[in-house]
Structures are given as structure tokens and as C-alpha cells.
Automatic annotation (TrEMBL):
Organism encoding this protein: Streptomyces davaonensis (strain DSM 101723 / JCM 4913 / KCC S-0913 / 768)
One protein family per Pfam: ATP-grasp_4
Protein name, entry field: ATP-grasp domain-containing protein
ATP-binding found in the keyword field: yes
SUPFAM superfamilies per the UniProt record, alphabetical: Glutathione synthetase ATP-binding domain-like
PANTHER family on file: ATP-GRASP ENZYME FSQD (PTHR43585:SF2), FUMIPYRROLE BIOSYNTHESIS PROTEIN C (PTHR43585)
PROSITE patterns referenced in this protein's UniProt entry, alphabetically: ATP_GRASP
Keyword Nucleotide-binding: yes
Length: 400
């Protein structure tokens, strides 16, 4: 839809497995919402905030179509939307069945299959990376010998840094393969290890045109789980320009046409390389970092731009401030005592995901972290400094 095109007085959307922010943003913009949640789980509180709420098996496209097609016939939806990982594929499948605009099922499926995505990028020479799909530990060892260096083993459809392992060489293949399976890894893919800083790129697409909104510097722990994010990136301008060009080419290649995308990138000595991407806003409170540093509400853009209610970004925004988040990773064990620092004089917020008596596990996925501190500052360095000073004063005492 061209911006400013005439739309019905009250647009209507279906939101699948949506975040509360998406439902609230839509309603603030005067968009009617039909919220669809998983029938196998209790209705989330946000269901009461939607105009209509339905409980449907989100994995069953036929059931989704049967539930929503009559509503669409009575009063058409303008879009089916979701900003949660589990809702992206059902959203694309349902939109296709209803004949609605949006990112195609092919594109969304490609973003969720790292092996297929890598094969297409390699075939087109876009940030090529050596890759393989090992069937067992022997295949993994053979790939290590082919690359001549360490490799990464990960699930083709993985999220939250779960079951991601570094394989030092052929001699480690057997042990890593067992650890991968024990961690619940499936559909294994192996890629050459990419050295260099890791960043993420938030973008917004409209009518097939992409705008980079922000580049985030990442801190990554030994198990490839993020321990912090800072905006805007401190990388030199020429490197950021190269990253932006790569992300534009990548999004064109996978066929993304609208909405947010979160693309993870390694900046190597041979240039930037895409690790993975998702047609949603980044997790780990990156949505909040965008608001604090750039004054952007990407959730509202997602709901409003398709109907001409909000203008899409005309170009990369200039950061007004810096913003940072640091995750809390206390030693594994049972929590015995918690003490938090005073945040007075800062804009920081502290959130704990553990309480006294809870078990803290070794950090092998994002869900294993114990909480976070988020703040903004005069610039990125100031925000990071405040965040890290406060994190150092958090006391989460554990015992084995």
C-alpha cells in the first residue's frame, strides 16, 4: 500500500501470539484487534484488551483459517501480524490463505531455516560462509578438517542461543555432538567459526524498501549467550556502511517486504557476515533500547504503517542518546541472598527473574540469565558505564 492511500475508517488486524505492546499500539492508533492465542494454554492477560479474543491451535493452519475466515468475510482484516517467534510462521501461512499482504510464507520459512538461508546467500555470493549439514559426529569431524579451523554447531531452526557449540577441531567432534544432542539440538548445521565482534541490526521495511534503524554492539558469553547490548554501535562509520549494505542485500535476497527485522552479524576480517535474521524486533529489550536511544516505537510502526496511519522511517535515524542493557549471570546454585543497588540519579531499571530459593543454572541459553539492568545515558559509552557499574553492585549470592 502506498503511504497515504485511502483506508477504511477503522482498520482491523488479527494478532497471532502477539505481544501486549502490539495489541496496545494498534488500539492506540484506532485499529481494531482480533487477538488469537494458543488454545493449549491459558488466555494471557492481554486477551482482555483486544476487541475480540480467540483460542486456536496456532500450529494448525486449517484451524486458524476456519476460525478467522468468517470474521474476515464479515469485515476484512488489513493484516495478520505477530512479533513473537512462535507466531511468525502461522501469521504468514494465515495471511497467505486469506489473500492478505505481508511477508510471504516462503520468506518467513527461509528466515527460520538457517541451512537454506545460508545456501542461498552462498549461491549468490552474499557474505559467503563455509557450511555443512552433518549427520553424525564423524561428519562433523570431517567438516572440521575441511575448514582447517574451529567450527560452530547449531540447530537450523534454533533461537535464544540454545544448543550452540564451538567445536575446536576434529578431536572434539564426538564430545560436542553428544553435548548438542543433550541440549535438545535438532537439524544440526555446522559453519566455519567467524572471528570478530558480533552486532545486531534492527531494520524496518515498507513496500520492499529497507531502512536500517540501529546497529547494536553485543557482549556474548562463552556459551554464545548474549550478556549485554549497547546502542548505538561504536564501530567506525565505513564498517557500519558496509554492514548496512550487506543487510539491505540480504533482505532483498530473502524477499522481505514489510515490517521489522532483526539481523545478527559478525564483523570479520573478510567483511561482515550474516549469522541469522528474524522478521520481528530483536529480543533482549532491544525494543526498549531503540526507544531510549533513538526515540523509535517500532511496534507502533509495525501496526500503523500498513494503513498509512504512521509514516515509515525516511532514513536511518540519528541517535539522541545512548542506551545499554546488561544481563545478570550469578554463579550456578540456589539463591540464598539478594541485594540491589540504589538507582537514584540514573534512568536505570533493574529486573530480577530469580528470587531467594530459586535455582540458578549454568548459562546455556537466554532463559538461564537471572535478570537485567537497562539504562540510557548521554551517549553509548555513558549508558554502558552506568549499566556496568550498577551490575557490579548487584548481589545475588548462591550456594551449591
Amino acid at each position: 500500500m502506498t503511504f497515504g492511500q485511502q483506508v477504511p475508517a477503522t482498520p482491523r488486524i488479527a494478532v497471532l501470539a502477539g505481544t501486549p505492546q502490539l495489541v496496545r499500539a494498534a488500539r492506540t492508533l484506532g485499529i481494531d484487534t482480533v487477538f488469537v492465542h494458543d488454545a493449549a494454554r491459558p488466555a494471557p492477560p492481554v486477551a482482555a484488551e483486544a476487541d475480540t479474543a480467540l483460542a486456536v491451535d496456532l500450529a494448525d493452519t486449517d484451524a486458524l483459517h476456519a476460525a478467522l475466515a468468517p470474521l474476515h468475510a464479515e469485515r476484512p482484516f488489513g493484516r495478520v501480524l505477530s512479533l513473537t517467534e512462535r507466531g511468525l510462521l502461522p501469521t504468514a501461512a494465515l495471511a497467505e490463505r486469506l489473500g492478505l499482504p505481508g511477508n510471504s510464507l516462503h520468506t518467513v520459512g527461509l528466515l527460520q531455516d538457517k541451512q537454506r538461508m545460508r545456501e542461498i546467500l552462498n549461491a549468490r555470493g552474499i557474505g559467503p560462509v563455509h557450511t555443512a549439514a552433518p549427520r553424525d559426529a564423524a561428519d562433523l569431524a570431517a567438516f572440521c578438517r575441511t575448514t582447517g579451523g574451529p567450527v560452530i554447531l547449531k540447530p537450523a531452526a534454533g533461537t535464544s542461543s540454545q544448543a550452540v557449540f564451538r567445536v575446536a577441531g576434529p578431536q572434539a567432534a564426538e564430545d560436542v555432538w553428544r553435548a548438542f544432542e543433550a541440549a535438545g539440538g535438532t537439524q544440526p548445521i555446522a559453519e566455519e567459526y567467524l572471528d570478530g565482534p558480533e552486532i545486531s541490526v534492527e531494520s524496518f521495511s515498507y513496500d520492499g524498501k529497507h531502512t536500517v534503524l540501529a546497529v547494536t554492539d553485543k557482549l556474548v558469553g562463552p556459551a554464545f549467550v548474549e550478556t549485554g547490548h549497547t546502542q548505538p554501535s561504536a564501530l567506525p562509520a565505513p564498517v557500519l556502511a558496509e554492514v548496512a549494505a550487506l543487510v539491505h542485500a540480504f533482505l532483498d535476497t530473502v524477499g522481505l517486504t514489510e515490517g521489522p527485522a532483526h539481523t545478527e552479524v559478525k564483523v570479520t576480517g573478510k567483511g561482515p557476515r550474516v549469522l541469522e535474521s528474524h522478521n520481528r524486533i530483536g529480543g533482549d529489550k532491544i525494543r526498549e533500547l531503540l526507544r531510549r536511544a533513538h526515540g523509535l516505537d517500532v511496534v507502533s510502526l509495525t501496526a500503523g504503517c500498513p494503513f498509512g496511519l504512521l509514516r515509515p522511517p525516511a532514513g536511518p535515524p540519528v541517535a539522541r542518546r545512548g542506551a545499554a542493557i546488561r544481563f545478570l549471570t550469578p554463579p550456578p546454585g540456589t539463591v540464598r541472598h539478594i541485594a540491589l543497588p540504589d538507582t537514584g540519579g540514573t534512568t536505570a531499571e533493574i529486573q530480577l527473574d530469580v528470587a531467594v530459593g530459586d535455582l540458578v543454572r549454568p548459562v546455556r541459553s537466554s532463559q538461564d540469565r537471572a535478570g537485567h539492568i537497562i539504562t540510557d545515558g548521554t551517549d553509548a559509552a555513558d549508558a554502558a558505564r552506568v549499566c556496568e557499574e550498577l551490575a557490579a553492585r548487584v548481589r545475588i549470592e548462591t550456594s551449591g
